[in-house]
Amino acid sequence: MNIQQLIDDIAADVRPYLAQAAPADYIPALAGEDPQQFAMAVATLDGQLYATGHSDKRFSIQSISKAFMLARVLAVYGDALWQRVGKEPSGNPFNSLVQLEYEQGVPRNPFINAGALVVTDIALSQIGDSSSALRDFLREESAQPALDFDYVIAASESEHGHRNAALAHFMKSCGNLHNNVDQVLAHYFRACSLRMSVTELARAGLFLANHGASPVSGVQRLTRSQAKQINAIMLTCGTYDAAGEFAYRVGLPCKSGVGGGILAVLPGKMSIAVWSPGLDSRGNSLASLEALDRFTTRSGESVF
Amino acid sequence: MNIQQLIDDIAADVRPYLAQAAPADYIPALAGEDPQQFAMAVATLDGQLYATGHSDKRFSIQSISKAFMLARVLAVYGDALWQRVGKEPSGNPFNSLVQLEYEQGVPRNPFINAGALVVTDIALSQIGDSSSALRDFLREESAQPALDFDYVIAASESEHGHRNAALAHFMKSCGNLHNNVDQVLAHYFRACSLRMSVTELARAGLFLANHGASPVSGVQRLTRSQAKQINAIMLTCGTYDAAGEFAYRVGLPCKSGVGGGILAVLPGKMSIAVWSPGLDSRGNSLASLEALDRFTTRSGESVF
Amino acid sequence: MNIQQLIDDIAADVRPYLAQAAPADYIPALAGEDPQQFAMAVATLDGQLYATGHSDKRFSIQSISKAFMLARVLAVYGDALWQRVGKEPSGNPFNSLVQLEYEQGVPRNPFINAGALVVTDIALSQIGDSSSALRDFLREESAQPALDFDYVIAASESEHGHRNAALAHFMKSCGNLHNNVDQVLAHYFRACSLRMSVTELARAGLFLANHGASPVSGVQRLTRSQAKQINAIMLTCGTYDAAGEFAYRVGLPCKSGVGGGILAVLPGKMSIAVWSPGLDSRGNSLASLEALDRFTTRSGESVF
Amino acid sequence: MNIQQLIDDIAADVRPYLAQAAPADYIPALAGEDPQQFAMAVATLDGQLYATGHSDKRFSIQSISKAFMLARVLAVYGDALWQRVGKEPSGNPFNSLVQLEYEQGVPRNPFINAGALVVTDIALSQIGDSSSALRDFLREESAQPALDFDYVIAASESEHGHRNAALAHFMKSCGNLHNNVDQVLAHYFRACSLRMSVTELARAGLFLANHGASPVSGVQRLTRSQAKQINAIMLTCGTYDAAGEFAYRVGLPCKSGVGGGILAVLPGKMSIAVWSPGLDSRGNSLASLEALDRFTTRSGESVF
């Protein structure tokens, strides 16, 4: 398989999709991204890096941060985590209060917003300044000490974040947030505001492809079982209400963000990052999904 | 890896779990199974078959039949299928009417009961006598011409099947069942009543592990993409409301049945069948889940 | 108050509404009614009867039958009834399965379809041929021995009644229907198919306005408390998902049917029946609601 | 009817219920009330006042304030109100987020918490300092210039009010709160914290019994239609998830509060206030409901 050729072809093939989708419009900083942008990068376990498109452009990783934050908390806190958040896919949108109320404040999984708020809350209790710790982790794993938050985006999210505030207050009323609501929200929004490029993101995902051992930092970030677990949750819950569609078409563990990025993992082989700001109706990057579908279909590679 | 040794060890290790779970009690024919029974079989792509426990005892495969029926319908009817049933995991129990009503009679996925009824309905329209066709298919793929329905169980299910009748009538009222309600239910219950042993089941699952090409019958049952798709849906939706738990612990596409059986697939390598009648609170075989967890954890093999 | 003048004026005033609504279209026999028809009748406790419009035309009373069936069952079976059905208003449409599932097969109130099926089931157990008994009761209370079922409508409802069959099978699966599902449905549809005119209906409602004692038959049909109870349930639950709107605008206990009829009760004074086939978006007769609103607003009479 | 004798008898009869229920326990200030307290007062349109029990003891009126606030806003803002809140009974608990999400931030009625927050928001926009205005209104209508907030209770509610904060933030995210979330919550909690005795409360309710014209202040507080409307909403929505039970047993428009008080209205005749701190499972005062049931059953008086 000639990976460079493959992703260059894909970049050309998905071009028609760029005009069919618009960026997230709920905050100005995201809405302003040019939807014609596209980038894809593949980092292999043997140290190769392939990239195409706007691969050096940093974008807001948004919910992709949830996969890394979960990995950090699972490493530190272990299975005790699962007493505060479930690991089952949700049949409802990522910011729904309905299921949360029926399940009395215990979110269905760590990748819906409520679940990520609980993970952030645990991180605050266990690690302290959780958003800074996540930033430092990603700096190490992408070998890019310059990575940082986008404070404008974080502030904008906070200002428009009444839905997330509703989730947090509800869980606080159920006793499933231990720290101050405003503090949890601030760290959550800050972590989501991190900016990375697809090459940085693909590299940072390698420890998930390598059964927990990072070839970048040389650190064993997770046990083999924990890496399996994070990948399993990415596959079943990582792409909002479209996990079934992604599993069916792409067949890889993925985590997407409303900034238009998607991180995908092929265990034992490689980590893939794609970015294009235009979103489909379920909040995933339209062109990125098309690109990943083509990548696994043409290469014949997937977990299935 | 010494597979025979591994599954013999596992059979010994899960013995304490046998006493902790009771068989399904909603129909007498299932309730009467001795919960002390356990069997496990592994069929590899290179033609080996390993088995332990009550591996020749035939049991009611129940919902495992849904995976095979889906494979048949996908092969015949293709992606048109997805206009009548979704492919997203459900946040609700397998026989819930709630989600079905919110989604106006289009079931979330083909493995909840409502979805399987739609698949059966399509099979009736496309294939004719769908339950007999499924029996014949499984006779070929297990190389066991004696496989058959358990008419006592089918009749008993039918008699106690008011919940499934409610699902079917509701979908009929939405226009999403085309055949007669009673006929659809009869074929559904008959397919579920098929009796197979773990060795027969493991062998019958090989075409899913071999990207669609059956090493038993020599027939290409599905395209490579379709095999990926079936495995993806098994992983995200195959174990009732516990798909996340299975992905997390086992990390393989699985399909379970209330008869206590589970079929698991390791693409490119093997097919695994486990059986023990005692069920956990979510309707999956307790000892079979424990066995599969140990199998992937000790062997280090999983899709992740 | 000159009642005849008032209802004649109202008949003129609501004429523009007749063209704005269409009859129920789910069965041909109802869909064929001319939407230009309107009738209103008032029967007072002192024996007067006032009528305007097509007041001798018999129409399908449909769900209005539920109020009479409930009165019969409450008289015979007493408060034991409330162990099988609630008496709280429902926040969901009249034929919803959602709430029924959450409340494990115990319908919210006797006027949603599921609740009326339970009441019919109790009537079958307590009274025997429940639909014939209801017909005979209404013949006596309207002093019209010729009242009868419309067997064409009953058959048509049965043929298209998959939604009601779903409700019945679901409750059967929960153990809250004791008789055969098909038998319950048959009696339910037959009772709904009764044809009455507004004058007959207004007269038949007098026992509810007279604290249980019928001035027509001379029989004490309900105790004073039971009459209060039926009126209370009509006010809180009698008009599908619009009980609040009716209470707010009309301020009387009402029971409506998809045939376009509404029965209203002013306790201590009178019984009012209105009919016009065109329905609003919630399944109540548009012109009949307008007429009742005008009647209570102009007369200053209501329970509030 | 000898009202004094009747309520004295009732006070004796409900004594056994006092020990069967506990005060609201979610804030210390309410939890500390002695559950053995009971009081009942009746104010008639002809100026009589009857009282029994701890009738001078002021208690926290809590949600009873919602009826008065609604009356104030309806008088000022009129039917435009109903574009921001519904008037249908809710099938869900008073503080549920589920229905609110399905109905996209428009609360079902003004007496569930979400609805009362919207009414408070409108009051803030239309009247300014809404809680002080309500206090002044109640001072006039009870002829008690000393009535005031309980700032300790208001502060305690605010501290434990994460559930209400969740509702408010959710509606803010839907655009259905116009003022600052914290400001709306502060006025809401302050209005709920008002302390009144049953005699003061019964007197203050007289304008609702007198078709809008207050015999206390001599002011026409509502039009006849508006008084009917408020009473209608009290009857269908005024007692949390037990409106059907109240209508069935009591047959009067009622508004209850978790402080243990209930205000009931018999249009054209009288206003009744009852108080006892112990609550039943649905949040209404257990002994107060028993007392109102006996009052209407023995007197034969109710709206039905």
UniProtKB/TrEMBL annotation, chains A, B, C, D:
Domain of life: Bacteria
Keyword Hydrolase: yes
One Pfam assignment: Glutaminase
Residue numbers binding substrate: S63, N113, E157, N164, Y188, Y240, V258
Top EC group: hydrolase
Any GO molecular function: glutaminase activity
Keyword set, alphabetical order: Acetylation, Hydrolase
Transmembrane in keyword set: no
Catalytic activity reported: L-glutamine + H2O = L-glutamate + NH4(+)
EC number annotated for this UniProt entry: 3.5.1.2
Assembly description: Homotetramer.
NCBIfam families (UniProt xref): Gln_ase, PRK00971.1-1, PRK00971.1-2
Family: Belongs to the glutaminase family.
Protein's recorded name: Glutaminase
Organism: Vogesella margarita
Gene that produces this protein: glsA
